[in-house]
Write a structure and sequence with these properties.
alpha/beta, TIM Barrel, 2 domains, six-stranded mixed β-sheet, three-stranded parallel β-sheet, 18 helices, 9 strands, globular, disordered N terminus, binds D-arabinohydroxamic acid, binds zinc ion
């Protein structure tokens, strides 16, 4: 049982002092509130990428999580909704989910938390005041303010070299931003080779539809070229729930003969995000994806066959979480990360985080925001701190009761590992043989 400490009368213990049971919750909260976060997976872009970087109230409200909820409560069909302007879509979502209904879902409450963070009213019948606030924000200063409120010091983007809109920025040598690091996303190559192989051929890479002959070597050359442009901190792919390895497919051939050797040569992890059922309802567009339980023996085979490669792994099905923890105990080249997408709800985050701590201690990355709109990192990370706070406090009280004292310094080391240094260690070049300083994230 944890008794809340009344901090008004008692001084805050120093880093090296043993904590009493009642001092643990406030120590945990203090440390969580002051530990900078490295957000290892987002869809955010810095201002230099123009309209690819989403921010402001209209983007917050037309988030695909909210669109999915909107279609359940509105008398608007998807076809009618998609014909509306972005502003009209945001107005419709605000009216349906925030005025005519109470915003108590995770995604609706998140928008409320963002408005509150900027001292904006949260109960207005329309968006006039919110719109005038956000439109008055100079974007670079706004980015700094959002990162500061969220307690985030770096984010990793999702960068698709075969997205013509995004590629045009990279090919114009877009300025890098110290708080936004790249991740080289490979879905079009590894999951949709038959649709996209001609894009590489058109750029001068000697590849063919079956990914035979020189194709693997040429895809590896493509990866090296884009590594030079983007300087990614990992490569990544989102895989369906039916992903099998080994299996004789073009994607698996390129995974084995191009991507994993390139990751090893560049000392980069490969992020595998497994369990999506793409477009179960295409009418909902980005909101149309679902989830399926995957066969994680594919992951087991990859970790065993490529012991020199590092795998950053997030799985989408709640039913796959426990086995992911067991695999992480078997393979130290496997780093579980995040409570992804449909799992990023406190009821499930709590269960996943508890079993990870029970089986892995602090050797995992508990969360990523997956933010698509800049200001989402504010609520996604305050929710994570809220969930982590009581789980960690309980662990420390259990440790005390089992016979080992806990100092604030222990908590700081543990929280830093969970929120920053595990991700940092896995996304920075490992120390080279020489003692030359390495570029860190
Ligand atoms: O594939 C991914 O990176 C997923 O996160 C999808 O982008 C998904 O649409 C999403 O935004 N989930 O939160
Ligand atoms: Zn994502």
């Amino acid at each position: 049982m944890i008794e809340p400490q009344d901090t008004r009368r008692t001084p805050v213990p120093r880093e090296g002092e043993l904590l009493k049971n009642a001092e643990i919750p406030s120590a945990v909260n203090d440390v969580l509130a002051t530990t900078p976060i490295l957000d290892i997976h987002t869809h955010l872009f810095p201002p230099a990428f123009g309209k690819l970087g989403l921010w402001g109230i209209d983007e917050l409200l037309t988030y695909h999580y909210l669109e999915a909820e909107f279609f359940r409560s509105a008398d608007t069909t998807p076809q009618e909704y998609w014909a509306l302007s972005k502003r009209a879509q945001a107005d419709a979502i605000w009216k349906t989910l925030f005025v005519e209904n109470t915003p108590i879902s995770e995604a609706t409450r998140g928008v409320i938390a963002v408005l509150k963070a900027f001292q904006l009213p949260t109960d207005r019948p329309d968006l006039a005041e919110a719109r005038s606030f956000f439109s008055a924000q100079p974007i670079e200063a706004h980015v700094q303010r959002v990162f500061q409120i969220a307690g985030v010091n770096r984010v990793v983007m999702t960068n698709d070299p075969l997205d013509p809109q995004e590629a045009s920025f990279w090919l114009r040598d877009v300025a890098s931003h110290p708080q936004f690091r790249a991740a080289l996303r490979l879905d079009r190559i590894l999951c949709n080779w038959s649709t996209h192989w001609q894009m590489l051929a058109g750029q001068g890479y000697r590849v063919d539809e079956q990914a035979t002959g020189k194709s693997a070597a040429e895809v590896r050359r493509f990866l090296m070229d884009w590594h030079a442009r983007m300087q990614p901190v990992y490569m990544a792919v989102s895989l369906s729930d039916t992903f099998e390895y080994p299996e004789d497919t073009a994607g698996n051939r390129l995974l084995r003969e191009a991507v994993l050797p390139a990751c090893h040569e560049l000392d980069l992890p490969l992020s595998l995000m497994i369990g999506v059922r793409r477009q179960v309802n295409p009418l909902l567009r980005l909101a149309g994806d679902g989830v399926g339980r995957a066969d994680l023996r594919a992951l087991e085979n990859l970790c065993r066959e490529f012991p020199e490669n590092r795998f950053l792994v997030s799985v989408l099905s709640r039913e796959n979480q426990h086995e992911l923890c067991v695999y992480a105990r078997k393979f130290s080249n496997l780093m579980p990360f995040g409570c992804w997408w449909f799992l990023n709800n406190p009821s499930i985050v709590e269960e996943i985080t508890r079993e990870r701590i029970e089986m892995l201690g602090t050797s995992f990355v508990p969360q990523h925001s997956d933010a698509r709109v800049l200001e989402q990192i504010i609520y996604k990370w305050s929710n994570t701190r809220r969930t982590l706070a009581h789980i960690l406090s309980e662990r420390y009280v259990l440790l005390l009761e089992d016979g080992r004292g806990v100092m604030r310094g222990d908590i700081r080391r543990d929280v830093t590992r969970l929120l920053h240094s595990n991700a940092q260690a896995w996304t920075s070049p490992r120390a080279p043989l020489s003692d030359a300083p390495t570029q860190t994230l």
